[in-house]
Design a protein that fits this description.
Helices cover 72% and strands 2% of the residues. The longest helix is centred in the middle third of the chain and has 40 residues. It has a two-stranded antiparallel ribbon with strand order 1-2. With 323 residues, it is an all-alpha fold. InterPro entries: DUF2232. This is DUF2232 domain-containing protein. It comes from Microvirga brassicacearum. Keywords: Membrane, Transmembrane, Transmembrane helix.
Length: 323
């Protein structure tokens, strides 16, 4: 019964953190962002069944005090992604010498990207009742607010009406791409933070992985091409939304791998703090433009495995998605 009681407690805490968003204050927004952490902690520190209990209890609590749709949204958007990633993180299989081979971090990152995409699409379907036209109208409203902020109407440097509409429509269609990018980073940070908390409390079953040596599976590169093809060929429905979102999520995952390569290759170097500080400052100042180079860097490492050939102690070849 230990995992049941722990799961109930975590579910109630997560539900409370979710429910406070109705207060519409900055503090409430911050607390809402922390709502998946309790589910992650109990799933990693006790076992994945505790995470399922937390998901069920949290969803039931929100359904009772807010609305059934809100409770369902909590389960789909907050609890189940946290439980699923924790479940994958603790997968392991025995080797011939009796040790345990834990789930590779690179493959886990690929699943983070896929989970972020599925969550974004599911949230869009739930919030609009499955109506793509409503989803696109909502995306256009957000895009229009952004364009009006950047190019105020009537300003000397403003753009003409047709160009404005084209920009609004283009950004609206990119909304799933940008949303999946952001959610991939958020889920990665959630899993890292929860894993670190559980590891420091000595409840994490697996040893702390060498994150800097992670590499996405080779199939992730092919999956990126498929996502782009789906986004181009079927743009005006939720399948196209999934393609656009998956492309953005995988783009971010490869960029994170690019960062990991630099962390890996600067280990033990005298100027490592200066290099990493400069890298993150540039990444912030360029507003993500540097992320394109990092993503291509990570993609090249997955496809060609140049770290594997760069000297002793390099990583083994990346796994395929099916292995």
């Amino acid at each position: 019964m230990n995992f049941v009681l722990t799961g109930i407690g975590a579910g109630l805490v997560s539900a409370l953190l979710t429910a406070v968003v109705t207060k519409a204050t900055p503090l409430a927004a911050v607390l809402y962002l922390l709502s998946p952490i309790p589910v992650l902690i109990v799933s990693l520190g006790w076992n994945h069944r505790a995470g399922l209990v937390a998901a069920a209890v949290g969803g039931a609590a929100i359904a009772a005090f807010l609305s059934p749709l809100s409770g369902f949204g909590f389960v789909i958007v907050t609890a189940l992604p946290a439980w699923w990633l924790s479940y994958l993180a603790l997968l392991g299989r025995p080797t011939e010498n009796g040790a345990i081979e834990w789930y590779p971090v690179g493959r886990l990152l690929a699943w983070i990207a896929a989970t972020a995409t599925l969550t974004i699409v599911a949230a869009g379907i739930i919030s609009t009742g499955g109506d793509y036209a409503t989803f696109h109208a909502n995306s256009r409203a957000v895009s229009q607010a952004f364009v009006n902020l950047q190019f105020p109407q009537g300003a000397p440097e403003g753009v003409d009406a047709q160009t404005r509409e084209d920009i609004i429509d283009w950004i609206a269609r990119l909304t799933p791409f940008l949303s999946a990018q952001g959610f991939t980073i958020v889920l990665t940070l959630y899993l890292y933070a929860a894993g670190k908390i559980v590891f420091l409390s000595k409840r994490l079953p697996r040893p702390w992985p060498e994150i800097a040596k992670m590499r996405l599976p080779r199939g992730a590169g092919m999956l990126l091409l498929v996502a782009i093809a789906v986004a181009v060929l079927v743009p005006a429905n939720f399948l196209g939304v999934f393609g656009v979102g998956l492309a953005g999520a995988l783009f971010t995952a490869f960029a994170l791998q690019g960062l990991a390569i630099i962390h890996d290759r600067t280990t033990g170097r005298a100027f490592r703090p200066m290099i990493l500080t400069g890298l993150y400052v540039l990444l912030f100042l360029t507003q993500g433009i540097l992320a394109i180079a990092l993503s291509l860097f990570g993609l090249a490492d997955t496809v060609f495995g140049f770290r594997r050939r760069s000297g002793p102690g390099s990583n083994p070849p990346p796994p395929t998605l099916s292995s």
